[in-house]
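Before going further, learn to read the protein records used in this course. The integers have meaning only within a learned vocabulary of local backbone shapes. The record below shows the convention in full.
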Amino acid sequence: MSYKNERCNLHKRFKSKNNHRYLCEDTIDYKTICKGVIKFVEESSFQLQESLAEGIASLVKDEYGVESIKLRVSKPGALRGAEDVGLIIHR
């Protein structure tokens, strides 16, 4: 499967440790996560979007300490007449 045109949207649950005062140390480094996901996808050979999504979710949770995520993976132009084809998983 070619991942050249794959799209990935990641949503994470955010909990402030300081009574709703958001501090830098409470956040994650999105640039680092994006680089990790891109590297993972480029080095992978999944045949199904479902398998790719599971792999990305596991990577983000295990390597970057994200407790729960909502992940959307889609492939634009996969079906004629459709903007894209994809799936959403919650982990």
The longest strand covers residues 69-76.
